[in-house]
Design a protein that fits this description.
Length: 760
């Protein structure tokens, strides 16, 4: 009998599938056909199969959180799990897809993965790449990441991460584009475009905007901590990049772990339905973050997972990542009438639509080509783009007496754990990236000047002195930990033989990213000891930093001759850094997060409010610290070049403008240096009086100018009153006539200004 049922089921499924495929053969497929196709498929699905489409499990290939199920393969065959993450390579995804093709309705699996800053070719960490202020580059690196991921069996990336972050204690600042909503929005849009450019071809993947919303503002910078934010910041600062990504057509959104106004995002109807779907018109699907539904029990807004599942689906969350809550409880919730079938069908529809648009119903193995994996991954043009991205992301923070660029001859001591390191250089969330393929600074300098200069190497210190951490990192460490004392002595000997010290220090990749908050923003203590000992030698020191967050560099700024912020630059790290050190590349990066003078200043950001008692040096009762200035050490927008740029002729045609009228501000920028360079000219506005208080400055435009020595160029910035709209206390998006101050300059601190009036 069982045999008979099985055979009958197979027969029905075969007819059904053959009907599906003949429907799909009609090309091009019109949207109406898609709708008919998906609805008819849903009509044939059992509740269990529907829940399967709402379920996402990790494979056993690699995991990014607690593993909750290991029987997922059986679930693929029975249609109880329709989506997989942490599985890639054409061979492996094909193997899993074949299991799904054994299920009754043969609905193809969707394969997701955290392709955050490249898949195999690793680009700079997003915070680093944002310092390039180059949206075309952002789009291109996303495009390459998508091509490689798609050639490696993937359909969906959990990127871009567009959380505004203003607190460098939070380790995940490394994954985003920094503190500013304007630049954050431009990059969000560029990334979505890059990932999704040709959805339906086999070289694009679905983007997933995360983490919706406000995840970048956990109290005290501690990961997963509560977020408590007013509507002004929410609408004017934190929401814009998510909105920009949605406007750019992002196909999916990931709910954040945090709560918003007391309700975790995963159950937040207001956020998901009112803001995201109704106000912003989002049509794609929403996935939880890893076990986001289960975690609501800890948040304390639901009593158990059953209630959590009900709250999530009713809030419009379509897919449950790894928590198996929909998998376990949706049937019961339906039986008990806590959820309705329309809600479930709608969620299933959204997910099937994504699969349909990817072309998976026509060919479930479309992304499983070993041939493409061979030719479209880490090819020369992709590696060249990684070099360009690395070079553009580097920020020169200090260059006393123009010690940089270095000559290609001379005696250099190469000291520090990041001289030979490779693992850390590809950064956190480096997906399927292979750190052994990264170029170290040691390799690059040796190949460039190994024969013309004398290079003396000493490791100098371990990456961290804490032995537990060393143990943890030993697994992947490129360098075997030895006693810091011995390493320091060796370094002093190496340094004594050199004319200039190139000192490569920083954080390990594991010190940033998820669950990697720090309360101390200095480099690790053993590296500080090394740096102090070397500085006592009174030899010039060029400090090269590899790290994933703004650090407290006050001591370094006093004592080092040059400081190069290189983040974690990815596969081409060593080549990019050495090209800047040796003057083959003129640095052009500009910070997208303020660097504090000490951890006590954070969160610190340029676009602050003025307060009722703004800082005044000699007035006690004004907003300030007793021990340090209010200003950051290095402000947002800051970065030096080997060229010198000057600004002149700042002018506006008149002082008063009508609402809606074009406002043009022009100026001349000149390169008075000796070499060609790129200047990022920045344009900020202050709305002097608003019905709600307004920030002291907001970035509105920027332009990158390439200037030859002695060359000058005119720049014209154009805005209108529409660019000056903001969300007031009633959450209306308004332009309010009045006085405005326009600023142009090199960064958020150094600029010139003019005042204008806009309005009747
Ligand atoms: C992270 C997400 C990530 C997901 C899947 C979570 O822990 O917060 O950013 O996409 O894991 O790996």
């Amino acid at each position: 009998m069982i045999q008979l049922i099985k055979r009958y089921t197979f027969f029905v499924a075969a007819i059904f599938f053959s009907q599906l495929s003949s429907a799909q053969k009609k090309a091009p497929i019109k949207p109406e056909n898609k709708d008919v196709f998906i609805k008819s498929l849903i009509g044939k699905m059992t509740l269990e199969e529907k829940v399967g489409q709402l379920t996402l499990f990790t494979s056993d290939m690699s995991v990014t959180g607690p593993v909750m199920r290991d029987s997922y393969k059986a679930d693929l065959q029975s249609g109880k799990c329709g989506n997989i993450f942490n599985a890639y390579t054409p061979e492996y995804t094909m193997k899993l897809q074949k299991l799904a093709m054994e299920s009754r309705l043969k609905i193809p699996l969707l394969f997701g993965y955290d392709v955050i800053h490249g898949h195999k070719t690793i680009f700079p960490i997003p915070l680093g790449e944002s310092c390039a202020w180059d949206t075309l580059l952002s789009e291109q690196t996303a495009g390459i990441a998508a091509t490689e991921a798609a050639a490696d069996g993937l359909h969906w990336t959990y990127s871009p991460m567009v959380d505004i972050s203003r607190d460098p204690r939070w380790g995940r600042v490394a994954e985003g584009s920094g503190e500013d909503p304007y630049i954050g929005s431009l990059i969000a849009r560029a990334k979505v475009k890059g990932y999704q450019e040709n959805i339906g071809s086999n070289s694009s993947v679905l983007a997933c905007v995360k983490h919706f919303a406000l995840y970048g503002a956990p109290i005290a910078g501690r990961d997963y901590n509560t977020v408590d934010m007013g509507y002004q910041s929410m609408y004017n600062v934190y929401f814009p990049p998510y909105k920009a990504a949605i406007d750019a057509g992002a196909r999916s959104v990931m709910a954040s772990f945090n709560e918003i106004n007391g309700i975790p995002s995963t159950a937040n109807k207001w956020l998901m339905n009112d803001v995201l779907r109704k106000d912003w018109g989002f049509k794609g699907f929403i996935v939880t973050d890893y076990t986001g539904i289960n975690e609501m029990v800890h948040h304390g807004n639901v009593a158990d997972e059953y209630e959590g599942g009900i709250a999530a689906i009713n809030a419009g969350i379509d897919m449950d990542m790894q928590g198996a809550v929909y998998y376990t409880y949706l049937k019961k919730a339906l039986d008990e009438k806590k959820v309705n079938m329309e809600q479930i069908d709608l969620a299933v529809y959204r997910i099937l639509e994504a699969k349909y648009d990817l072309g998976l119903f026509s060919n479930p193995y479309k992304f499983c080509s070993t041939e493409r994996a061979k030719t479209q991954i880490m090819n020369p043009s992709q590696l060249a783009k990684a070099l360009e991205a690395g070079q553009k992301s580097i920020v020169l923070l200090k260059n006393q007496n123009n010690i940089l660029p270095l000559k290609k001859t001379g005696k250099y001591a190469l000291i520090g754990p990041y001289i030979k390191d490779k693992r850390d250089l590809i950064g956190n969330w480096s997906a399927a990236g292979d750190w052994t393929k990264a170029v170290s600074l040691y390799e690059a300098l040796n190949s460039k000047i190994g024969s013309s200069a004398q290079l003396i190497y000493a490791q100098g210190a371990n990456t961290v002195s804490d032995t537990t951490l060393i143990k943890k990192m030993q697994i992947q460490a490129f360098i075997t930990p030895r006693s810091d004392g011995d390493l320091l002595q060796e370094a002093l000997i190496a340094a004594s033989q050199a004319e200039v010290i190139i000192l490569a220090l920083g954080e390990t990749e594991g010190m940033t990213g998820e669950a990697a908050s720090r309360s101390n923003l200095r480099i690790p203590a053993n590296q500080i000891k090394l740096m102090e000992a070397l500085s006592n030698l009174n030899k010039p020191i060029v400090l090269v930093l590899s790290n994933g967050r703004p650090l407290d560099l006050s001591w370094e700024n006093e004592n080092m001759n040059a400081i190069l912020e290189t983040w974690f630059l990815g596969t081409q790290s060593g080549n990019a850094i050495s090209s800047v050190l040796l003057g083959e590349y003129n640095p052009q990066g500009r910070l997208t997060m303020s660097f504090p003078r000490s951890v006590g200043q954070v969160p610190i950001f340029y676009s602050a409010k003025n307060t009722g008692r703004p800082y005044e040096e000699n007035q006690k009762y004004t907003s300030k610290y007793l021990d340090i200035p209010n200003t950051p050490l290095f402000p947002f927008g800051y970065g030096l070049s080997y060229s010198q740029f000057s600004y002149s002729n700042l002018s506006i045609p008149k002082k008063a403008f009508k609402t809606g009228e074009k406002i043009e501000l022009s100026l001349t920028v000149s390169n008075s240096g000796k070499i060609k360079g790129i200047e990022t000219v920045q344009f900020y506005v202050r709305d002097n009086v608003g019905s709600s208080t307004r920030p002291v400055k907001e970035l509105k435009r920027f332009v990158k100018l390439e200037l030859n020595p002695g060359e000058s160029k005119n720049v014209v910035f154009t805005i209108s009153s529409d660019d000056l709209k903001y969300y007031n206390y009633e959450l209306q998006h308004v332009f309010e006539p009045g006085e405005f101050t326009l600023f142009v300059g090199k960064n958020s601190s150094e600029n010139e200004s003019v005042s204008i009036h806009i309005g009747e």
